[in-house]
Amino acid sequence: MIKKISLEEYVTSQSFYSRREFLNLMKDKKVFVNEELVLDLKLPVTPNVDSIKVDGLYVDHNYEYMYFKFYKPKGILSTMKDPSGRACIGDYIKKFGKPVMPVGRLDRHSNGLMVMTNDGDFSNLLMHPSYKIEKEYYVKLDRYLEKKDITRLEKGLMLDDGPVCFSNVSLFKSRNELMVTISEGRNRIVRRAFDHLGYQVKSLKRECVGTFSLSDMKSGDIKSISKKELSEFKKYAAETKLD
Predict the structure, then answer these.
(1) pLDDT tens, 184-241?
(2) How far apart are CA 117 and CA 224, in angstroms?
(3) Which residues are catalytic?
(4) 41-78: string of b/e by CB count within 10 Å (b at 16+)?
(5) Which of 65, 108, 132, 156 could staple 165 via S-S, CB 3.0–4.6 A?
(6) Going by DSSP bridges, is the β-strand pair 222-224/157-159 parallel, antiparallel, or unpaired?
(7) How many CB atoms lie within 10 A of CB 143?
(8) How far apart, in Å, are the Cα atoms of 91 and each of 12, 18, 21, 105, 211?
(9) Hey, is 149 helix, strand or coil?
């Protein structure tokens, strides 16, 4: 039996349209399924059976689900486009030539690991709060981190948008460099936690997302995630899922 997927997932997995761009085209009445106008993002469609036309062009089913690791350089926005013309992940993806999207974000001044895919279910697994996917960061501060603040980070802080707790804080000998682990995915959460304690983050690099890491990668690299890596991650994610 051929699996049906939502129209939104089909188009974003088989083209370079972002979800926002696709929504705008739908609002402009430029989306057709089997030559009929469609205004429902979640309409179930069958790949290789239904014809899908967006903005006058047919979107063929050319790609299976793909999974990649991206080593985001510092200074690059985690968006597909930037109205101001600043460098962004979309520039790398277009050169790469495959219709994938970044999952989550890293702020412009941070670097490190991001995952890119055209699999909506996998994106949800990475992002949904019911899965406690841990992320590990290298952090360099403007001054020594005091012991009392290590305790506060591990016991939990209350920020403007709710509590945050680090599952691990490990200092280097320099005492202003450390590794932290957190399962939160809120905007700039690591920087905001240290800012709350009176520290300035001078450098921030995401080293790991769950079982994925930057191993053997250089800044700007895009590396395919193997079936073995994918299987290991899904097993890890299942173990973290809240009941």
Answers:
(1) 888 899 999 999 999 999 999 999 999 999 999 999 999 999 999 999 999 999 988 8
(2) 10
(3) 107
(4) eebebebeeeebbbeeeebeeeeeeebbbbbbeeebbb
(5) 156
(6) unpaired
(7) 11
(8) 17, 13, 16, 15, 27
(9) helix
